[in-house]
Structures are given as C-alpha cells and as structure tokens.
Write a structure and sequence with these properties.
The complex is a heterodimer of chains A (111) and B (120). With 111 residues, chain A is mainly β. Chain A has no helices and nine strands. In chain A, the strands form two sheets. In chain A, strands 1, 3, 4, 7, 8 and 9 form a six-stranded mixed β-sheet that branches. In chain A, strands 2-6-5 form a three-stranded antiparallel β-sheet, with no helix packed on it. In chain A, strand 7 and strand 8 form a beta hairpin. The termini of chain A are far apart. Chain B is built from no helices and eleven strands. Helix content of chain B is 0%, strand content 48%. The chains are: A mainly beta (111), B mainly beta (120). At the A-B interface, strand 3, strand 7 and strand 8 of A face strand 5 and strand 10 of B.
C-alpha cells in the first residue's frame, strides 16, 4: 500500500489529453513539493516534473504538473506512442522522522 | 555530464550482507543530497534512504531501518548503502539518485541500477 495513491492504469488515443492523479495528505503533498517520473520498460526513471509544476530542460511542454491541497496531477497533452510508460509521483513526507514516498505508479497505454 | 554508476549488486543468501556503491561525476558531489531507491521485480518504485550533502543527516524507510546504513565519502564522490540482515523481500534493482541541495525527493539524475537478489 503506497502512501501516495495513483490509478494503476490510464489510456488515451494519440493526440488526446490524459490526466494522472496523485493523492496524498497534509504531511506529504500538502506541505512539500511533488515530482513526477517517467519510466520506460527496462530503463531507469526520468524526471518529468519538479517543484510541482516545473519542467527540466529537454522535457516537452506536452507534460505539465499541478498541485492543489493534498493532491497533484500530471497532464500529458497531444499523446504520442512513445509516451507509453509507467508514471510515478513522489514527495517528502514530514511524518515520523521524515521519509520519501512514491505513488504506486500508473501504467499509461497509448491506444 | 552528470553520471551515476552503481556497483556491488549480486546474489546473497538471506541473512547476508552486501555493500552497494554509487560513483558520481559531472557535478559538485558534496553540494547535493543523494538517495537510494529500489524496485522489486514487476513492482513500483520504493524510496529506501537519503543522505544530506555533508552526510550529517540520514533518513530511512521503515522497511530497512536498523538493517541498512547510508553513507558517503565526498572526497571520493561516492555514495554507499551497507545492507545487513538481508531478506528475500529486499530483492530489487537498487538505483542511486541525485537530489537537490537538500533532501526534498526531486531526483534529476539516476544511475542505471544494480540488481540485488536475496535467495537461498
């Protein structure tokens, strides 16, 4: 059971827009930055979004992030076949002595 | 160019020990917090441990607390994870990841991962 809750799967046709949600609590998303990662099969994760809504250089502006209260979202616009991957949200959690937490991951299928 | 190269993975029996290393290059290592993240076969990402740039602050997941120790040698640009009392459920690919100046779980660079298999 992951501390951050993501839907296990999402899908969309090429060109469509897909939203992946990430739900947490006041001790993690509510009080800290959210980051998002894309993991293609057999490869290491790649940073897509940091500081809730910032894109590293090289990440297409088709990817955007937002945060509201204790939830965050990743939006992928103009879906492309190469976007088919697993997506994870992550944040710091202030509970106990502090810990990092990930969502369980969302497998995105491009139809 | 930032590079993170893990080593030290392998097959170990339950109850055994292993030390992972992550050699960093392309950035001022001591200026950044570092973390270990693992992924069991077919499963999602799991945060394991983080350490501040100076090494003075360390954090652990409950699942490894008391068994794993994170450390760093800034003179060698190397991050370590000493893993003791290994369990079958510790089997995973272990990634080292570069964080921001402080531990905030924003990993802009990842290593390629090293596989740890705990089995008899």
């Amino acid at each position: 059971q992951s501390v951050l809750t993501q839907p296990p799967s999402a899908s969309g046709a090429p060109g469509q827009r897909v939203t992946i949600s990430c739900s947490g609590s006041s001790s993690n998303i509510g009080n800290n930055y959210v980051s998002w990662y894309q993991q293609l099969p057999g490869t290491a994760p790649k940073l897509l979004i940091y500081r809730n809504n910032q894109r590293p250089s090289g990440v297409p502006d088709r990817f955007s992030g937002s945060k509201s209260g204790t939830s965050a979202s990743l939006v992928i616009s103009g879906l492309r076949s190469e976007d088919e991957a697993d997506y994870y949200c992550a944040a710091w959690d202030d509970s106990l002595s502090g810990r990092g937490v990930f969502g369980g991951g969302t497998k995105l299928t491009v139809l | 160019e930032v590079q993170l190269l893990e080593s030290g993975g392998g097959l170990v029996q339950p109850g055994g020990s292993l030390r992972l290393s992550c050699t960093a290059s392309g950035f001022i290592f001591s200026n950044y917090a570092m973390s270990w993240v693992r992924q069991a076969p077919g499963k999602g990402l799991e945060w394991v441990s983080s350490i501040s740039g100076s090494g003075g602050s360390t954090y652990y997941a409950d699942s490894v607390k008391g068994r794993f120790t994170i450390s760093r040698d800034n003179s060698k640009n190397t991050l370590y994870l000493q893993m003791n009392s290994l369990r079958v459920e510790d089997t995973a690919v272990y990634y080292c990841a570069k964080d921001d100046a402080v531990v905030i779980i924003e990993f802009d660079y990842w290593g390629q991962g090293t596989l740890v298999t705990v089995s008899s």
